[in-house]
Amino acid sequence: MKNNTKKAKPVKTNPDIKVFSLGGLGVVGMNMYVVECGNEIIVMDAGILFASDEARGVDYIIPDFTYLTENEDRIVGLFITHGHEDHIGALPFLLGKVKIPVIYASGIARTLISNKLMEFPDIQYNMKSFDSNTELTYKNFKVSFFRTNHSIPDSYGIAIKTRLGYIVNTGDFKFDFTPVGQPSDYYKMAKLGEEGVLCLLADSTNSDVTTFSSSEKKIASTLKQMILNIKGRIIIATFASNVYRVQQIIEACNETNRKIAVFGHSMDKNIEAAMKAKYISVPKDIFISTREVSKYSDDELLILCTGSQGEPLAALSRLANGTHKQLKLLPNDTIIYSSKPIPGNEQFINRNINMLMKSGANVIKNNPLYGTHTTGHASVDEIKLMFSLMKPKYFMPVHGEYNMLKQHANIAVEMGVKKENCFCLDCGDVLTFKDKGHPKVVKQGVFASDVYLDSNFSDVDSNILKERKHLSDEGLLTIVVTISKQKHILAKPVITSKGFIDMEKSKKLIDELTNKSIEIIEEILNKYKIINVMAIKSQLVARLSQQIYDKIEHRPYIVPIVNVL
């Protein structure tokens, strides 16, 4: 019996400890990090990324779950750091493809996940709660948690104890010494540092910001003064998940006798979740329905809405472009952006601000003068404090564009981590720790890619995206050819253009392409005994494309249509 027990211990085989990302490196969003050892895999977060205009016809991007699907029997659990969409948004798609034995989430994250999965009734899942005192034991790991401050309640870092030391994922964090909610667990962070942090994975979003982030309480005071002093209707756009901010707005409206109307599905759902989790307490009758707005004077109203990032279908965007069915912008409206642009969203936000101001509204953005928003992410000095507490031997920056990851690594070196111990990786790169020697990086050691989803949450093939981009950049050229069964060209090829050239102004080029088409077709007809339609099409595309490029340095998407009569 004793001999059998010894053979079963995974530590005897000295399995490698592997750390890698399936999403969250090189972008701000889509977070998903994996730690594995022996026959056990720990997954942390399953986030979504909102697509930019460059990905045409794509609304969301999620990680590819192929590796997890192939290794689902080894997964011991999915651990959620907090309830933001870039950490939980991909859950329905993950659970639809991968068997996850248990999801561990805390507080409002648990409520938000439950609400989200209600829209997917076919998905079965098992979810359990954790808190700062929870410790979970597996063959190769012990998992514990420490509370952090962020722009949503119940944000946690995750500490994974291995035989070589702790692997710590901070989750999204900042240090707020006067938080609205509970304070960070400084003692636990310092204790982890004393026990020995092998590798730290830390949020890089604000690694290029030098100023210490403002306290949420300071923002509360600023918003209260604004709501107190502004005349007319107030419209506040903020992140739907920032329930601390929503609570502050409710309290200010209660003191100034303003009613609140909520516009935006995600805002409605998050307020409902926060009330359920008792993070928002609502005075009686302060909320009114969207249909009741017209019953109140402008000075009695505050409208809380989504769209702080310029999302095209969000309430504020529709209000800005005049397409909102229930709400119209008034010249004396004051719009307050209680948010910060997510990298890549600046152009959409500026577009909305211009339309709002053109309509006569007054727009207040977050800036040093007003201070309508504070970040939920650590700046340089806060990052340094995290390093002082954790004292990691190795460091892997996560959650950020590459320049953010690199800047974070520079801070780590400044704080005493050896340069060769810092790893700025790509998704799919595997950082491997052995019992002896320096850790190794296996480039693309696991399969990692992006999955594109449209507004209906259907997959969009990457080849289709390439075609869309090609069409958008270069335009479309169609060539219609009619050939008799006796191998004669019955009519001159018809060439049309969409988004490529002006047909009237480019007659010379069209004539050249028409003559070239005839030359190519006759050449293929003479070459084969039968009419080889595929050869005609492929040669038309290849040779006309080259001719066009030689003439005007463009490569339109060429569609040859060959009719045989």
Key phrases:
globular; 6-stranded mixed β-sheet; 16 helices; alpha/beta; disordered N terminus; 8-stranded mixed β-sheet
Q: Which SSEs are present, and which pair or pack?
A:
Layout (H helix, E strand, L loop, with lengths): L1 H7 L8 E7 L8 E6 L2 E5 L4 E2 L9 E4 L2 H5 L4 E5 L5 H4 L2 H7 L5 E3 L1 H11 L9 E3 L5 E3 L4 E7 L6 E8 L2 E5 L16 H10 L1 E7 L12 H14 L4 E5 L4 H14 L2 E5 L1 H12 L10 E2 L12 E5 L9 H6 L13 E5 L7 H13 L3 E3 L15 H11 L3 E5 L3 H13 L15 E4 L6 E3 L7 E4 L5 E2 L1 H13 L1 E8 L10 E5 L8 H21 L5 H20 L4 E8 L1
Parallel strand pairs: 3-6, 6-7, 7-8, 12-13, 13-20, 14-17, 14-18, 15-16, 15-17, 18-19, 25-27
Antiparallel strand pairs: 1-2, 1-21, 2-3, 4-5, 5-23, 9-10, 10-11, 11-12, 21-22, 23-24, 25-26
Helix pairs in contact: 5-9, 6-12, 7-8, 15-16
Number of strands: 27
| Average predicted confidence as pLDDT | 88
Q: What does the main sheet amount to?
A: 8 strands, mixed
Spans of at least 5 consecutive residues whose pLDDT stays below 50 are 1-14
Which percent bin holds the helix content? 25-40%
Strand arrangement within the widest β-sheet reads 8-7-6-3-2-1-21-22
How much of the sequence lies in strands comes to 15-25%
Q: Class by helix and strand content?
A: alpha/beta
Overall geometry comes to globular
**Cα-atom radius of gyration:** 29 Å
- What distance separates the N and C termini? 83 Å
The helix tally amounts to: 16
